[in-house]
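Long-time lurker. I teach an intro course on protein structure, and each term I like to show students one example going from raw sequence to a predicted 3D structure in token notation. This year I'd like something fresh instead of my usual example. Would anyone be willing to generate the tokens for the chain below so I can use it in lecture? Attribution to the forum is fine with me.
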Amino acid sequence: MAQSRADDTVIFRKTGEKYERMSTSDYSKKDSRPFLSAGERDAHMPPPVPLPMPLPKNRAPSKRKRISREKNLLIAAAALFLIYFFINQAFKIDDNNGKKYYEEYINNSINLQVSIVEIDPDRIEEAFTSVRYMTGVIRFKGVAIDYQGYKFKDSITKKWFHYLDFGATNDGGHQARLYALTDNLDVTLKVNKDEWEDKDLGAFENPIPVLSFESEWLVKQETGERENAEKFEVQKAAAGEEFTHQEFNFVITRQAYERNVISYLTHVMPRKEFKEMFKKQ
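-- Reply from a regular --
Happy to contribute to a lecture. Here you go:
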């Protein structure tokens, strides 16, 4: 067996703060620096640097995992749909079917000419009304319908009435209609016969609903507004300028009347009264 030579033995020596490799043959040249033991060598050696872990390879998901992911997405979508459905129905649970009976309500209405009494100044603020009703949810946002109204008293019957204007936008037409009522003008109301004869209706706290009325003053205002707009349009055209007139409906149209009735029956009339009024159907 071959024996290793002494020159091939590797030892360490300290040079300042570093350690150098040297052979026994180098040390045999009367080098005064001592040998380092294995413990001393390990204590002064820097700690080993950990090797970086290999990055995982991008593997395509298995067919089973892909199917499971698609299944979870379908379940989540179905859950969101159910939540949306129940939220939407929660707002409509107390709604009446106004679209089904609005024509019957209108056909059972009468024309009632009244003379409006000047309201007590202490009640003016209470006389003006504004209410908003939540009607559903679209894209998780609440959808609402509101009305602006006014309570007034008839000098002949001594009963209180409540005009409700759904979808009012505070335009010139809406303001004109309120003026006709607040300025104590003579008007002709459209009132449902059953509500007119109801003894529980007619007080300030529980007035008779009015969803349309007629006024000669409103007709004159609308006619004058259109005539002025036409003259102004001719003047602008002669000057080579464009003019777009925003037409206001001072007089309550049939379409607006039907809208008011449907909204009132659906969202405002108490469910018990609604069933009693249309119980025959």
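Some talking points for your students: The chain has ten helices and nine strands. Residues 63-93 form one domain.
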